[in-house]
Design a protein that fits this description.
By secondary structure, the chain is mainly α. The protein contains 8 helices and no strands.
């Protein structure tokens, strides 16, 4: 009986070793895959946001008007559209309102209502600030997880507060006058 247990163990040990090795390899490859996906997200979306922000002469005013004034182009939406699959839902919620406001703003370029354009710029500044701030916060978390340099921290510390942009939003009467409630 003793020999039969030895024979059984001789057969089971290699099988168990193969199964354990397979499971460890599976866990390792899954971990590597998740890390490579996170690196891809960081390199495609967050690094583009960082380039956009660091490209400005002043990194404290990270908003629509600063981007338009400096780049003469609406780059924020372009980055989000090009990297849509990488953008977290919390940022997409703000971007939808930003994008809707941007469409109204571009339409107002054809009209002469200066006050309405000013109202739309303040709303665009607010939403672009939220998008940038959330993106930088997520970038900071991801770069820490991936052990990358913390490039977002400096931008976040120098940014104007969300309260600054919220206080700059137009009064409720103006928003109602132009029927822009859905933008906030």
């Amino acid at each position: 009986m003793n020999d039969s247990y030895k024979e059984l163990l001789k057969m089971l040990v290699p099988i168990i070793a193969v199964v354990v090795s397979y499971l460890l390899g599976l866990v390792s490859s899954r971990s590597n895959y998740e890390k490579s996906v996170k690196k891809e997200i960081y390199n495609n979306y967050y690094s583009e946001i960082l380039k956009l922000c660091y490209g400005l002469p002043s990194q404290s005013l990270l908003n629509f008007f600063s981007f338009i004034a400096y780049y003469h182009d609406e780059k924020l939406s372009k980055i989000i559209i090009e990297n849509f699959q990488y953008v977290p839902n919390t940022i997409l919620v703000s971007w939808k309102k930003y994008n809707l406001t941007l469409k109204k703003y571009n339409h107002e370029t054809l009209n002469e209502d200066i006050q309405k354009k000013e109202v739309l710029v303040k709303i665009l500044d607010y939403h672009s600030h939220l998008i940038i701030k959330k993106s930088l916060q997520e970038s900071e978390k991801l770069s820490e997880e991936l052990k990358l340099p913390q490039l977002s921290t400096q931008l976040l510390s120098g940014m104007y507060s969300t309260e600054h942009y919220r206080n700059a939003l137009p009064k409720q009467e103006l928003i109602q006058k132009y029927c822009l409630q859905e933008l906030l």
